[in-house]
Amino acid sequence: MLAGGTIFLVVLLYMSVLFTIAYVGDKRADAGRSIIRNPYVYALSMGVYCTAWTFYGSVGRAASTGVGFLPIYLGPTLMAALWWVILRKIIR
User: Fold this and answer.
1) Taking the mean position of all CA atoms in its chain, how far away is CA 80?
2) Between 20 and 30 A from 90 (CA), which of 6, 7, 45, 62?
3) Is the CA virtual torsion 14, 19, 24, 26 positive or negative?
4) Range of 24's domain?
């Protein structure tokens, strides 16, 4: 088992990395070079979001309710299939 000091140090380092990333992102946005507009960042962030959603959502639901996990997959699947139709209506 890990010692309390080791856990505290790891949490402190992790939080420092997160705040450093946020600080750099804010400074880039203030300079007009926002990292949000980068398609690679968008694709990677969607991958992380969908992976976490799938893992924490569907695995737990499948374990407790059986086929009750299907709506977790149907929403993103329908959204991916219908995105261009919805986007055209939003733009108009």
Assistant:
1) 16
2) 45
3) positive
4) 1-36
- Round to whole Å and give the CA distance between 40 and 51: 16
* Integer Cα distance of 82 and 27 in angstroms: 36
Residue 42 makes CB contacts below 8 A (sequence gap 6+) with: 36
Whether residue 58 is found in the same domain as residue 26: no
Residues 26 and 42 in one domain: no
Residue-wise pLDDT for 11-48, tens only, equals 999 999 989 988 988 888 888 887 777 788 888 888 88
Q: For the chain, what percent of residues have pLDDT higher than 70? A: 97
The count of domains in the chain is 2
**How far is residue 87's CA from residue 70's CA, in Å, rounded to a whole number?**
25
Any idea which residue has 């986007």 for tokens?
A: 87
Answer for the pair 69, 54: CB distance below 8 angstroms, yes or no: no
